[in-house]
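A further point concerns the way the authors explain their paired sequence and structure data. An entry of this sort, consisting of the sequence and the corresponding backbone structure tokens, reads as follows:
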Amino acid sequence: MVDIYYHMAVPPMIYNLLLAVFIPVVSLGFVFNIALLMTILTTRKLRTDPRNSFIVALAFSDLSMCTFTSPLTLWYTLEGHWPIGEESGSSANRGSGNNFMRASAS
């Protein structure tokens, strides 16, 4: 029998708890942000309201957080180190900062 927890930086109970929290939050965040963007971008009345441009910017920012930053953060937390190289680590760090910059710039 193979122990899947041998290389993890957290105990198995915390590992399972993090997965149980992260996966639904990221999945629901992705689905609801796609639904929000589709609703606003396909409805003429909502598309022409200037207040919705801020909501669209926040939805795009949150969508990129759910797609890239949160899964990579979970991976880093569970592994205890950055397993995919130095350059990709600094790129991911810049990417998470860009999410906040985009949301606040709108």
About this structure: Residues 12-42 form the longest helix (31 residues). Residues 1 and 7 are 15 Å apart (CA to CA). The helical segments are 12-42, 44-48, 52-79, 86-105. The chain is about 80% helix and 0% strand.
